[in-house]
């Protein structure tokens, strides 16, 4: 919601003389809104369970990490190059708020990713142990060779 609000604020600006900072902020806010919205839709409808080949915890971590980084850069650039209009100031404020929320979400995503890695390594070690135990040959004296 903060990315959407920042995008709406930046879209209300009618004129700018150095527009590079504004365009960069517009690109970052729109991109974060679209990608995060798509992931939110996938997770809300449980569609991610139909594609188990993708590591969704890592995907969420990468999305939130990149969104945090680029929102911070775009907000700093827009803060440095703005003309102190109400819409630009509001966009900068919502940009920094979105940065903070994405950073918190990135921290949560790191914890979920680490937890999923631990569970995967535990499952793979259980699988390896089960396979090695099933291959062990037990010497049973009741089974004798028929060669004699």
Task: Give an overview of the whole structure.
The protein is mainly α and 148 residues long. It has one domain (16-138). It has helices at 2-11, 20-44, 56-81, 86-135. The radius of gyration is 26 Å and the shape is elongated. It starts with a helix and ends in a 13-residue tail after the last helix.
List the helices and strands and how they pair.
Layout: H1 2-11, H2 20-44, H3 56-81, H4 86-135
Helix pairs in contact: 1-2, 1-4, 2-3, 3-4
What is the H/E order? HHHH
Strand content: under 5%
* Low-pLDDT windows of residues: none
What share of residues is helical? Answer: over 70%
The assigned structural class equals: mainly alpha
Largest sheet: none
Q: Report the strand count.
A: 0
Q: Round the mean pLDDT to the nearest integer and report it.
A: 83
Number of domains: 1
Would you summarize the structure shown here?
This protein is mostly helical and about 150 residues long. It has helices at about 1-10, 20-45, 55-80, 85-135.
Characteristic terms for this protein:
single chain, 148 residues, mainly alpha, 4 helices, elongated
